[in-house]
Amino acid sequence: MRRHIYDTKLGMGQAAAIRAADGLRSTIAERGEANLILATGMSQFEMLAVLVTLEVDWSRVTAFHLDEYIGLPASHPASFRRYLKERFVDRVPGLRVFHFVDGEHPSPEAECRRLSNLIRDLPIDVACIGIGENGHLAFNDPPADFDTEEPYVVVDLDEACRRQQLGEGWFPTLEDVPRQAISMSIRQIMKSCAIVCTVPDARKAVAVKGAVEGPVTPMLPSSILQEHPSCDLYLDHDAAALLSEAG
To answer: E strand or H helix at 146, and its extent?
Structure first.
């Protein structure tokens, strides 16, 4: 896991976006097309704001949505479909296709099967992700399932995860935060050729330390990134504050 530490969130986000765009461009040059995974949340604000300005032939890019709450309308301010439509899909010209997770599907399990069938046999060239305060990847809260081969799964959200969403201002009360989500699985994320992981803020520092320096364990799902052959971790100084090893 390569660590890159920046003085500002903007510098961090810019570097992460450049890395993602470089990966997409090189893959398009080699194969004629590329597949991308995008996350949401406050950690991705700066990265996405830069990514949509960079020169990429988006007509050759297929993108996949990392996760979504179950039962939350797409019009809700916390909807990840709304987030990605406003911050990415509507701002890139001619994107080939974006596969959203439909959290309002009457059968979440059927929606998982639909998405899994779309992504199962595709090479994923770049995955842009973050790390949660509880160390989760996507909505795979601890203890995460490191074994399932299903690309998308229904997951229960733990209280720490739900409190993070409340603390970030997405919901007025804890009771308003959904208790379940559809999430890309750990193994599917780890199949990505390159992972660009962007993590700002002091509130993520404990999780970052565990992910980078702790044992690989389902109790800290992001620790699995230590086993990925091409993972770049982009941090600001606050998120990196507890690291004892040089980057």
So the answer is: none
Q: What is the mean pLDDT of the chain?
A: 96
DSSP secondary structure of 28-43: HHHHS-EEEEE--SGG
Whether residue 247 has pLDDT greater than 60: no
Number of domains in the chain: 1
Query: Looking at the domain assignment, is residue 136 inside a domain?
Result: no
Whether residue 213 lies inside any domain: the answer is no
The reply to whether 93 falls in a domain is yes
155-175 confidence digits (pLDDT tens):
999 999 999 999 989 999 999
Model confidence, pTM? 0.95
* Pairing outcome for strands 34-38 and 126-129: parallel
Token code pair at residue 74: 């797409």
DSSP state string for 149-193? --SEEEEEPPHHHHHHHHHTTS-SSGGGS-SEEEEE-HHHHHT-S
Q: Are 198 and 234 in contact (CB under 8 A)?
A: yes
Cβ(194)–Cβ(125) below 8 Å:
yes
pLDDT tens digit sequence for 87-96: 999 999 899 9
Q: In this structure, are residues 134 and 160 in contact, taking their beta carbons and an 8 Å threshold?
A: yes
Give me the CATH number covering residue 175: 3.40.50.1360
Percent residues over pLDDT 90 in the chain: 96
Give the number of other Cβ atoms within 10 Å of residue 97's Cβ: 11
Specify the DSSP element, H or E, that contains 196: strand 194-199
Specify if 245 maps to a domain.
no
Split at pLDDT 50, 70, 90, the class of 77 is very high
